[in-house]
Amino acid sequence: MTTSRELKQFVAITIYMGIVNLPSKRDYWPIHPILSSHSVTNELSWNRFEIVWQNLHLTELANVNLSSDESEEEVVQTYSNEKSLV
Fold first, then answer.
1. Higher-scoring residue by pLDDT: 61, 23
2. What is the rounded distance in angstroms from the CA atom of residue 62 to the CA atom of residue 60?
3. In angstroms, rounded to a whole number, what is the distance separating the alpha carbons of residues 62 and 78?
4. Which of 4, 6, 22, 72 has the most crowded Cβ, counting Cβ within 10 A?
5. Residue 26's domain spans which residues?
6. Nearest 5°: CA angle at 19, between 15 and 17?
């Protein structure tokens, strides 16, 4: 299960990627220790980042059909449980 801390780190890394452009996502996690990396990428491993990247899907609730007896929170919780990250 992905924690809220991991999601915050994921968002921070994604913002960093928008500011500092490298050829590929993998380049933000250098393999050789002598190569510099930003501390933001030290907080979340490459493998974990990639799992979240592949499984996180955002949508507007306006695009979700709510039945009359469902609240938005129930729909989000149900969707989250069905699509939970490993």
1. 23
2. 5
3. 16
4. 6
5. 4-82
6. 50
Residues across the chain: 86
Q: Look at the block and give the residue holding tokens 């989000």.
A: 76
Rounded Cα distance between 31 and 10, Å, is 19
Of the candidates 22, 17, 23, which has an alpha carbon nearest to the alpha carbon of residue 53?
Answer: 17
Q: Provide CB contacts within 8 A for 68, sequence distance 6+.
A: none
- Pull the structure tokens for residue 30: 């250098």
> Residue for token digits 């991991």?
6
For the full predicted model, state whether its pTM sits above 0.70: no
65 and 52 Cβ atoms separated by less than 8 Å: no
How many structural domains compose the chain? 1
